[in-house]
Specification:
It is built from 1 helix and 11 strands; from the N terminus they run E-E-E-E-E-E-H-E-E-E-E-E. By secondary structure, it is mainly β. A hairpin with a 4-residue loop joins strand 5 and strand 6.
């Protein structure tokens, strides 16, 4: 579990949307469950001075994954969408790089990275507690169709993702930053 800041920037219009929230992720040998709750948001123009930017407003949106289905619930516009993404019987695959629409780096392996990306690793330039990976999709990777580049920051002590950013081919940059991350915490089933 951890706190999350999700930032989406549209380079063609300079519009930025920021959401604060929380993420829960649980994985065992047979199942992966994930919930992302977004509780506040704001939008602004990238050229606005920090003090002129909108304040965060209340927001209420959830994305949950139960091992087979993703559910998107938006409390503000009273909508609920649900789609099946896992039919193979191996839900852990959905959170590996190269699968489905959520390129979340939670179940990442070195093999995944080397299969899909040219990887440039930098350690300790400004912060020895962090490993930075610059990822350029290989031409044969399914990521090459959608993403220009991806960036991944890992906590050096345990290789836990703490920040993830990608630029897609539509000139949009999405960045997720996690803080106050707790590993191996018991998460009640009702969370998902």
């Amino acid at each position: 579990t951890g706190n999350m800041l999700l930032v989406k920037e549209v380079l063609t219009t300079d519009e930025v949307t920021e959401n604060n929230g929380k993420i829960w992720y649980q994985s065992n040998k047979s199942k992966v469950e994930m919930r992302m709750h977004l509780s506040t948001f704001r939008t602004f123009d990238i050229e606005e001075a920090i003090e002129d930017r909108n304040k965060f407003a209340p927001y209420d949106e959830d994305y949950t994954f139960d091992g087979a289905w993703i559910t998107n619930r938006n409390g503000l516009n009273k909508s609920l969408k649900k789609w099946e993404i896992e039919k193979s019987g191996n839900p852990k695959e959905q959170f590996k790089l190269g699968h489905d629409q959520f390129p979340l780096p939670f179940n990442i392996t070195k093999k995944d990275l080397l299969t899909h990306f040219k990887v440039v690793k930098k350690t300790g330039e400004n912060d020895s507690a962090t490993i930075y990976l610059h990822l350029t999709p290989l031409a044969k990777s399914q990521y090459a169709k959608s993403y220009r580049e991806l960036h991944l920051w890992l906590r050096a002590s345990d290789k836990l993702p703490i920040k993830f950013s990608y630029e897609d081919k539509d000139a949009k940059i999405t960045t997720a930053t996690w803080s106050n991350v707790k590993v191996n915490e018991t998460i009640p089933g009702s969370t998902f």
